[in-house]
Amino acid sequence: MARPLNHTITARPGRPSTAGWARLMLLSGSLVGLYLLVAVWGFAFTPDQYGIPLVWPATGVGLAFVFLYGYRLVPAVGLAAALVGVWFTGDLVAPLEQAFTVVVTMLATALGTAILRYCRFDPRMERLRDLGLLLAAGGGVSSGLAATVGAYSLAASPGPLSLAQTWWVCWSADLMGLVLISPFLFTLLGGRLVMPSGADLRIGMMLVTATLATGAVAYLLALDLTLALPLSYAVFPLVMYAALRCPAPITSGLILVFGGLALTATGLGHGPYAALGLERSLLALNAQLGLLVLTGLSLTAISAEREAAESRARQHLEDLARAGRINLMGQLSTTLAHELNQPLCALSTYAQASRRLLARGDTEGLGTALERLEQNAHRAAHTVRQIRDFAARQDLAHQVVAPAHLIAGVERLMAPEFTRRGIHLKVNVQPGLPPIRIAPMQIEQVLVNLLRNATEALAGRADGRVRLAVYRRRRELVLEVIDNGPGIPPERLSLLFEPFTSWKRGGMGLGLALSRSLVESHGGTFTARNGNAGGAEFRFTLPLEDDHGDTATYGTSGG
């Protein structure tokens, strides 16, 4: 499911207000102005022998505006296309063909927009799926239709050109113009405009300056081809850094800035590609810029998807913690009853004393008793609030889960922490394990707790290793977490699962008590011991519901 967009993409029904008309005129004027500007720039790179612009960003401008602000801007696309036709080709193309070109241009824009909306394209382009949709709908449909009508018009005019000869040139021009300008417009206008922080602003300005300097050195200085051509690829690390560090508008803006500079310089006869002739040089440059676009936008999407996945993982861990707090209520019931019993008994005592003091008329003693009564009432209320805040959700339903799927989810959750700490995690899951009926979040909580304990035990070790093994033993599933750390202090083994007992600094002594409680609530057992070769071994079992007989032990470590 795509995320909700941060802009309005459908016009409200009814007659537009004065403000609505003003906004429509402003958007239409902006579209027409930008369309004409990039058209003039595109026609600057037109080989005399063909009359075909080898770079055509106008299609991308129309597609971005219509998608972001609604189909009411389609007539503005038609107006801009008509002005371009009259301005540049009015003497060469018949009026009927001009009108046909305008209609197809409007149709191509509307159709590309419809496909993007139907497929839930997100203009922030934070998913690889969105990049693929833009290339398919924009590059395949909008640019394909525009290239077809352009090639047909040229093929129908007197001259040696044929449809097959010109279509691919028109299409590559449309496609390159679209991927250069539309990602910048989509990412800039398609999300919330947030003023970058001082550090981000400085990084952005440094990247823009470095990109312009790279382009100037590679394309404007009279360097030898053997030096200028490799230097033209120096922009790739800059774009890759921006994709991994900066918001999408900065990355797409850098690509647009470098592409515009490189195309302009090449069209004017400068740079490493100029010696090939205008047609061949721009087509060769388009190939380089195409790689730059794919690299930058793909890394941007991958980085955004990774951040979104990490955010979901953090939320999932928080859900696991909440589920753990619910189950911990059983372990804490005795302690909580004790904490409540003391103030409640005191309340009763001071209430009785207050009644006696009131009967004797001892106002001074009565005031003291009432003050103590109020203090204990606040104490009891505070305890109740702690209980209420501690448990925020109800118990979780059991589900049938494949063990391999369960372990894969835990491994994904914990992989970043193991990587950050430099600890190697090895996972062994016996093939063909039958499904089990569990509350997945609770068992995940147990495994996450054990794996985190292992990483803490291995802190500072360069050779830290943890093994998570899952195998079948008769009619139960065995799950083991084994590390090569210092192990469990022998004097602590007998108290390991007691609540509020911990030998770790800052520990509350609740994690293992909760874990054992969760496992036992599933009908399993939980044990811990020190390994023969050092380290700690935690093992718990879960009952299997099927009855397929015994299987060979897999991946055990004894015990």
TrEMBL record:
Domain Histidine kinase intervals: 335-546
Domain of life of the native organism: Bacteria
Main location: membrane
SMART domains per the UniProt record, alphabetical: HATPase_c, HisKA
Reaction catalyzed: ATP + protein L-histidine = ADP + protein N-phospho-L-histidine
Topology in the lipid bilayer: Multi-pass membrane protein
EC number: 2.7.13.3
GO CC annotation terms, alphabetical: plasma membrane
InterPro entries: HATPase_C_sf, HATPase_dom, His_kinase_dom, HisK_dim/P_dom, HisK_dim/P_sf, MASE1, Sig_transdc_His_kin-like_C
Location of the protein in the cell: Cell membrane
Keywords carried by this UniProt record: ATP-binding, Cell membrane, Kinase, Membrane, Nucleotide-binding, Phosphoprotein, Transferase, Transmembrane, Transmembrane helix, Two-component regulatory system
Enzyme class: transferase
Transmembrane segments: 21-44, 50-69, 76-94, 100-119, 131-154, 166-189, 201-221, 256-276, 282-304
GO molecular-function term, one example from the UniProt record: phosphorelay sensor kinase activity
Any Pfam family matching the protein: HATPase_c
Record protein name field: histidine kinase
